[in-house]
Amino acid sequence: MDITDLTERVVEFPDNFLLIDLCGEHDRNLTDIETKLDVQIQRRGNELRIYGEDGPVRAAEEVLRSLYTRLEAGRPVDPGDIDREVRMGPETETGARDGDQMEMFQRGPVEIKTRKKLVEPRTEAQKAYVRSLFTNELAFGIGPAGTGKTYLAVAVGVSMFIGGHVDRIILSRPAVEAGEKLGYLPGDMKDKVDPYMQPLYDALNDFLPGKQVAKLIEEKRIEIAPLAFMRGRTLSNAFVVLDEAQNATTMQMKMFLTRLGEGSRMVITGDRSQVDLPRGVTSGLRDAERLLKHIPKISFNYFTAKDVVRHPLVAAIIEAYDADDAAS
């Protein structure tokens, strides 16, 4: 790329210490922005010079200014923040960062406060999903792996729990084998089902200190259990998440949805392309979409490969499989 033939924009940052944080160790943040937006960025003193096509150059300037503003507010910049700014652009309004999240989500930036970190959606679909989790008593998140469906749902659950909006968190998954029989796994029933629940434990430990998670589980204020354990219960004043819902049968899905009690919120997440049910058994997630889509106050949020926030190869893999399915 010959920079003499490209658009140039010069952005000045008055605080050299913040500029160092903006650039990152060995300028890795600048390299990340260059790769994502196909521009070149050169640092000269307290200025950053951006070269490239006009559109990407302007986008890079907006990203850099937004990240610098973040640093001025005393907040760190990590790769996820860069990814979010590149995908979504700067926010146009300022939310009440220290206010009640049940009001804050209605305007400006969407942020989820937990004990260990501040979680921010990184795509427009994720942003809409988080808003729906705060506004609807029953919400569905449907899409491929890596789009943050379960992670964001657990984050919202933790936020509402520590904010006093619910008394407990209940996380569940169908214990459906994907090639390995439960009976062949070692240990008692808890040992057998815990591997299926591990992604839920992982998400919780991202948002709450480990000792607090253990204590809350011991006090039954956080429950992590297979779907079959939900039968006969009424789940009141709780934030309830059913993960991997594509592996629930129609009867299991009906059973679970009718557990919803007073003061509770329920989130159903799943990926229609990863059904592990026996051949001929209808996915309860598919039936729920068909039957509930037009009921007020039930939201359906959909994700695509463009919303994948894992390794970029994951999005490419999903798109390849989707293209093959479409062609067959």
Descriptive terms for the model:
328 residues; alpha/beta; 3-stranded antiparallel β-sheet
How would you characterize this protein structure?
With 328 residues, this protein is of the alpha/beta class. It has twelve helices and eleven strands. It has helices at 16-23, 28-37, 54-72, 79-88, 101-104, 124-135, 149-162, 189-207, 210-218, 250-257, 284-292, 312-327; strands spanning 7-12, 40-44, 47-52, 112-113, 118-119, 138-142, 168-173, 222-226, 238-242, 265-270, 298-302. A six-stranded parallel β-sheet has the order 8-7-9-10-6-11, sandwiched between helices. A three-stranded antiparallel β-sheet has the order 1-3-2. Helix 10 (250-257) links the parallel strand 9 and strand 10. Helix 1 packs across helix 3 (54-72) and helix 7 (149-162) packs across helix 8 (189-207). The longest helix is centred in the first third of the chain and has 19 residues, at 54-72. The radius of gyration is 22 Å and the shape is globular. The two termini are 41 Å apart.
